[in-house]
Design a protein that fits this description.
This protein is α+β, with helices and mostly antiparallel strands. It folds into 3 domains: 136 residues; 156 residues, Nucleotidyltransferase, domain 5; 65 residues, no CATH class. The chain is built from 16 helices and 10 strands. The strands form 3 sheets. It has a 6-stranded mixed beta sheet with strand order 9-4-1-2-3-10, with helices on both faces. A hairpin with an 8-residue loop joins strand 1 and strand 2. Helix 3 packs antiparallel against helix 5. It is elongated. Keywords: Membrane, Transmembrane, Transmembrane helix.
Length: 433
């Protein structure tokens, strides 16, 4: 009976339902066996899609009803495996097993139950976390078509620190991507650009016909457009929140359109305020600090709480946040470069082991950092497009001195520069002739 007991426990774990089919309640066994084979088939299909049709795989697994279904199925499988395991213990008849083996058989059954039913429960929980994270990051806006064959996305890097009145964008870039080839060009807009025009259809164009000036904030620079719209003109954007955006972000999109001459379909906002939680979730981040950076303090370096010393080191969330935020001992351009390098360093920390063991903390932190109005249904398309983009060099246009004077920019010249840079090569437009 001892060998039979071990055999039933093992086969119940490897092929749930088979123990009942062979030695117990065949109706229950057929239910368990059918559920097991169905699960195996779904896993095989998922792996095949991931390998051969990754776009379809991403579309399916990021579709909210599918995540609800996965969550429900995992809970159902956990309950079924629990019932099958308890029934297998009944079939084992521990009292007839060798006395020295009874405790080991019972312990093995509990461990295997924790692996199977517990694994399904964790899977259900992760499906719920994924669903919540995707819903909080991606907007509910409409799917936009490319304009002139391109998607133009406004990238904003901001910091809603304790010394600031709301979030203020420090990094402002437009990523223009060819909708077919993935060829990308980034356009850097200086945050201190003055006289910013708005697109013709912007509700702010009538309020600032000569560009962004005579505003209510302290300095009428490009990055102040966000604050101005949030605090003074929120009523002009009644549908912004419903579309996964905000009045400030919509105004920044319209300002970027006025500066570049491009139509901006979507935005992606990275809030540096949430980086501390993400870095701590990842167990720290390794960066190379080039300059001694103050933590806190003012422009005269009074009341500094501490320093981040030069050198390669692993920073925790608190120090990583100040590495990106510190601005009194270096220039704005240095801070923007540090923010970019921190983002790159964090991306290298996303190893499979880190993601699996700290999934919940990473997901929760990520939802605080990244916001976008890109619809969740377009996620797979943009993942495919990003794959194409990574396979080729990314061009860059910097609207900074000496190319552009931020205090007195020539926007007609900027439009011409951007249009010329994004125009397809002549050999693509001249035909076969």
């Amino acid at each position: 009976m001892t060998h039979r007991a071990w055999w039933l426990v093992l086969i119940n774990f490897l092929i749930p339902g088979s123990a009942q089919v062979l030695a117990g309640n065949r109706r229950l066994g057929r239910l368990g066996l059918g559920a097991t084979l169905t699960l195996w088939a779904l896993v095989i299909i998922a792996v095949a899609l991931f390998v051969f049709l990754r776009s379809a795989f991403i579309t399916i697994v990021t579709f909210e009803p599918v995540l609800w279904l996965v969550q429900g199925l995992m809970v159902a499988y956990a309950v079924l495996w629990f019932v099958l395991t308890i029934d297998t213990l009944r079939l084992v008849r521990l009292v007839k097993a060798a006395p020295g083996a009874r405790a080991w058989i019972a312990a093995a059954t509990v461990v295997l139950l924790a692996v199977s039913a517990g694994g399904a429960t964790v899977g259900a929980y992760y499906a719920g976390v994924t669903r919540g994270t995707l819903s909080s990051i991606f907007g509910g806006g409409a799917m936009e078509a490319p304009v002139d064959g391109r998607y133009n996305i406004l990238l904003l890097g901001g910091d809603a620190g304790p010394d600031r009145d709301g979030l203020r964008p420090d990094t402002i870039r437009v990523m223009s991507v060819d909708a077919e080839t993935g060829a990308a060009t980034t356009i850097g807009l200086p945050r201190d650009m003055r006289h910013t025009p708005f697109s013709a259809d912007s509700p702010l164009a009538g309020l600032y016909p000569d560009g962004f000036q005579n505003c209510d904030v302290s300095a009428c620079k490009l990055n102040a457009v966000y604050t101005e719209a949030e605090l003074r003109h929120g009523d002009l954007y009644p549908d912004a929140v419903a579309g996964g955006s905000s009045p400030g972000i919509e105004a920044m999109k319209e300002a970027a359109e006025g500066v570049t001459g491009l139509m901006i379909q979507y935005y992606v906002l990275i809030d540096m305020q949430g980086f501390a939680d993400l870095v701590d979730a990842l167990g720290g981040v390794e960066v190379t600090v080039n300059d001694r950076l103050p933590i806190g303090g003012d422009e005269q370096l009074n009341n500094v709480d501490g320093w981040i010393e030069p050198g390669t080191q692993v920073l925790d969330g608190y120090h990583a946040q100040w590495y990106a935020r510190s601005r009194h001992s270096t220039s704005d351009w240095d801070r923007m470069e540090r923010q970019n390098s921190l983002i790159e360093a964090i991306l290298t920390q996303f190893t499979p082991g880190n993601v699996l063991t700290k999934f919940e903390a990473i997901a929760q932190a990520g939802s605080k950092i990244v916001k976008t109005d890109i619809p969740q249904g377009m996620l797979s398309y943009f993942v495919d497009l990003a794959t194409k983009t990574r396979e080729q060099p990314i061009e860059s246009i910097e609207l900074t001195p000496p190319t552009v004077d931020p205090d007195d920019p020539d926007f007609s010249a900027i439009h011409e520069l951007v249009g010329t840079s994004l125009a397809p090569p002549e050999d693509e437009t001249s035909g076969d002739g």
